[in-house]
Amino acid sequence: NVATLGRLSVGRQERRLSPGGTLLAWLGVGGLLAVARGGASIHLFDGSTWATVEGTGSELISGVYDTDAAYVGDTEGAVWRLDGDAWVACGLLPRDSSGGESYPHVTHLAADGSRVLAVPAWKGPFVSEDGCATWLDRASPLAVQFSQTSITSAFTTLQASGDRWAIAGWDSVGVTDDAGASWTQAFIMPPDLTRGLAHSPDYARDG
After folding, report:
1. Backbone angles phi, psi at 108, to 5 degrees
2. What proportion of the chain, given as a percentage, has pLDDT over 70?
3. What is the distance between the alpha carbons of residues 32 and 10, in angstroms, rounded to a whole number?
4. Among 33, 75, 82, 94, which residue's CB has the most CB atoms within a 10 Å radius?
């Protein structure tokens, strides 16, 4: 995520935005998706041209721009998909009494072709393979302790590449090679809070 005041630059391409509020931006396979003023307007950059669409009417805190679709997540646990120049609600993510009612905020999204992954502040990820019409629970073993952390740092990053996913946050790092059927958790020397992840494109051979 990046924050700026009224201006967004990608290489030599610059977009001037309406002033007021923080700008959140996410870079995906399809390009850059930026949310201005809490979601009042959304800006998309596909590598050559900019497009602006109206927001969803809710407070947005996450987004991803895939090759074929764009998605955003809000503070109420809803994921939205861009259909033409309008946003279509995919419905609320599943929730239960262990935290979903109090912390539904969709803090991170990832997309890889036909799959969309979403992480609310209390548990995750959830995955959809039908354009976010339905969601399956593929939760990692990472524990969330809201007495020690905030909503936005419970999970700090989410990545997806085929069946290999990675999630990180307050309780270290979790990796799956089989689309969430099983997870490996990497414990880091305390404090375990992991703020970001990066991997080599050749990770399959270089370890």
Report:
1. -145, 145
2. 70
3. 9
4. 33
Report how far residue 117's alpha carbon sits from residue 126's, in angstroms, rounded to the nearest whole number. 6
Q: What residues have CB less than 8 Å from 81, skipping those under 6 apart?
A: 69, 70, 71, 87, 88, 90, 131, 132
- Give per-residue pLDDT as tens, 103-140: 788 888 998 878 899 998 888 899 999 888 889 999 88
The 10 Å Cβ neighbour count of residue 186 is: 12
How far is 48 from 4, CA to CA, in rounded Å? 21
Kindly list the distances between the CA atom of residue 72 and the CA atoms of 58, 62, 131, 189, in Å, as whole numbers in the listed order: 10, 6, 13, 33
Place of tokens 């959809």: 128
Q: Is 99 exposed, middle or buried (0-12, 13-18, 19+ CB in 10 A)?
A: middle
Per-residue pLDDT at 187? 66
Please report the pLDDT score of residue 118 as a whole number: 92
User: Which residues in the chain show pLDDT less than 50?
Assistant: 1-6, 19-21
